[in-house]
């Protein structure tokens, strides 16, 4: 169970009191917000995991593991949490960072091609440079 904790400070004449307010985010469902400072890059195809595994700082093979993202009576719904990763030069110098995530697809259980689709949430100011680097 995921819980969100918020600390609020209340001030009065005798001092500052603190209390924790807990809100269950599990009831909120998926949420999205369009941010002008961010952009999304889509990676798709059967070699997506292999391609990114050799370029990024984190182990992206967990996105290729077989799991059901569709709630069924026999198998619970599972989603892989987003991953923070960085793209480095061959010498190990930092180039770009982004959040990598795998969207849930309702038709995933019917897809036998082995194709994987991943999204990268990147800063819009480096988007063109990142795309040029990935094309090399």
Summarize the structure.
This protein is mainly β. Helices cover about 10% and strands about 35% of the residues.
How large a portion of the residues is in β-strands, by DSSP E?
35-45%
So what's the CATH class?
Alpha Beta
State the CATH architecture: 2-Layer Sandwich
Q: How much is the average pLDDT? A: 73
Structural class based on helices, strands and sheet pairing: mainly beta
Question: CATH fold name, please?
Answer: Alpha-Beta Plaits
Shape category: globular
Can you summarize the main beta sheet? 4 strands, antiparallel
User: Major sheet: order of its strands?
Assistant: 3-6-5-4
The residue ranges in which pLDDT falls below 50 over 5 or more consecutive positions are 1-18
User: Residue share in helices?
Assistant: 10-25%
Q: How large is the radius of gyration? A: 20 Å
CATH superfamily: Aminomethyltransferase beta-barrel domains
What's the total count of β strands? 6
Characterization of the model:
There is one protein chain. This protein is 11% helix and 37% strand. The chain is built from 2 helices and 6 strands. The chain has helices at 48-53, 127-135, and strands spanning 3-12, 15-24, 38-45, 83-88, 94-101, 116-123. β1 and β2 form a beta hairpin. The longest helix has 9 residues, at 127-135. The radius of gyration is 20 Å and the shape is globular. The model is unreliable at 1-18 (pLDDT under 50).
